[in-house]
Design brief:
The protein is built from 12 helices and 2 strands. By secondary structure, the protein is mainly alpha-helical. The protein has one domain. The protein has a two-stranded antiparallel ribbon. α3 packs antiparallel against α7, α5 runs antiparallel to α11 and α11 runs antiparallel to α12. The protein starts with 5 loop residues before the first helix and ends in a 13-residue tail after the last helix.
Amino acid sequence: MQPLPVAFEIGATIIMLIILIADLLLVVKRPHVPSMRESSLWVGFYVLLALIFAGTLFVIGDAQHGSEFLTGWLTEYSLSIDNLFVFVIIMARFQVPKKYQQEVLMVGIVVALVLRGIFILLGAQIIERWSAVFYLFGAYLVYTAIKQAFGKEDDSEGQNDNLMIRLLRRRVHLTDEFDGSKLRTTIDGQRYWTPMLIVFLAIGTTDLLFAFDSIPAIFGITQNAFLVFATNVFALMGLRQLYFLLGGLLEKLEYLKYGIAFILGFIGVKLVFHAMHVNELPFINGGQNIEWAPEISTVTSLIVILASMGVATVASLLKVRADDKADPEHRSRPGAREI
């Protein structure tokens, strides 16, 4: 694969960041809850941008650049949707008023971008110096996939706060009331932290955990640092609008976690096979490459990812329809929550 022109990589990076920053600044300039139509238009716009970028890669680079970006973008996008589901739980857990959720999402996206950028730089350096890391990445993704598919889910209403938040509650003065999107407020002349502080910390720790899954997964698709960064930026574009577009549908996509688990497991196995091809560990096959290990192409990965998400989504929607027919009133019960 021929390298992309440096001028293109620099120019594209600047444009991507400008678009993402402009989207986030809309929250500051015009805070509101986006309508379904507005959210749909924005999500469609960002998907179109990603497809245009992929087409540009096919022209300026080659088919491998374009297909690696598309596969990586779809992988990161699916993981971002999973990330959104956790955001839904956090928003409900701390009862964040709907009109302030955009600010929370903005912070979450900025933190995710920074963390992923750091992990991309670290990951690229590690891969360049020690190819055996593919074994670790692969094993971690397979473990994550198994945990995602078969691990017990915590009840969003009864889940315990993590250690950091429990310590925070004991150490600082916290009020139970929100004061807009402010972190600090004054009550009877005394300064208090608002629940928004805990929400931001919960979002930040969530972003950190998802970055640990996201970066090994994308390096399983491509080791080109520019493409890795681009897939992550495009996956974060429109994430705020996607949150409001999907709304309560996220909680109805019951089988989505299995589709994402299969994708992570598949990429994990692919990474292990790749590690076998570039094997440098002396205790594995005497440090020689393992020729029998299959090489999974990018096109195959793209097909598997599309099929996994498609099957999981369709199966979830069919289950929702079956549940509605069996019990038409189940959506009006307290457990059927909307954002």
